[in-house]
Design goal:
The chain is α/β, with parallel strands linked by helices. It has five helices and 14 strands.
């Protein structure tokens, strides 16, 4: 069962509609106590990293997810801000994030590009993590973001996009995966990525090097 974390800054309903279209069993979960049947989690995101982290903290999600994802190796997919909070720190509000992946989140240079970055952009596939196989070579995906992640370990990068500067469009480390673009708004290519995550056997990812 896929559990879509339903918090006040997320776009959980949009993810739910996409999974319904794909025929994937799922549930909107507002609190960790609602997750008895959940074996994979999706953290959608719209809004600021600080508000997201505070919302997760207030409902007890940080400890729960650390136990289930880092401890038990259950599958995790972050979307948009759900990718950004995986890193150690965000410039958006000077916020300490989950720190599951090494790196930081930065604002686009407003002197170079229009902010927010909004629209369809090409994603260049990187690495050989099984999640990267879900991307369409040369495919375009839909982005809405004013900040971008900069991993300090390039091995977690599975997709890159350039908007003024190159940034992480998708990352993956063992059972932890995320996209900066909105899978649920990226037409067939995005739904393909979403379905691939849902279908992945995460038990096969436990022994992977972070790549």
């Amino acid at each position: 069962m896929i559990g879509i974390i339903d918090y006040r800054t997320g776009n959980s309903q949009s993810i739910s509609y996409a999974l319904e279209h794909l025929g994937v069993p799922h549930a909107l979960v507002a609190k960790p106590g609602e997750c008895d049947e959940v074996d994979k989690y999706i953290l959608p995101g719209v809004g600021a990293a600080g508000v997201t982290m505070e919302s997760l903290r207030q409902e007890g999600w940080i400890d729960h997810l650390s136990e289930k994802i880092l401890g038990d190796g259950q599958g995790f997919l972050g979307v948009c801000v759900g990718l950004q909070v995986l890193f150690e720190h965000s410039e958006e509000g000077d916020v300490e994030c989950l720190g599951w992946l090494p790196g930081s989140v930065h604002e686009f240079d407003r002197a170079e590009v229009r902010v927010p970055h909004m629209g369809w952009n090409n994603v260049e596939v990187r690495g050989d993590h099984p999640f990267s196989r879900s991307f369409t070579p040369g495919g375009f995906y839909y982005f809405v973001n004013s900040f971008y992640a900069r991993p300090t370990d390039d091995s977690v990068l599975v997709g890159a996009t350039t908007y003024g500067t190159e940034f992480a469009a998708a990352v993956a480390s063992k059972n932890i995966m995320a996209t900066q673009f909105h899978t649920e708004k990226s037409a067939r290519a995005g739904l393909q990525v979403l379905k691939a995550f849902c279908d992945l056997d995460v038990t096969e990812l436990k022994d992977l090097d972070a790549r």
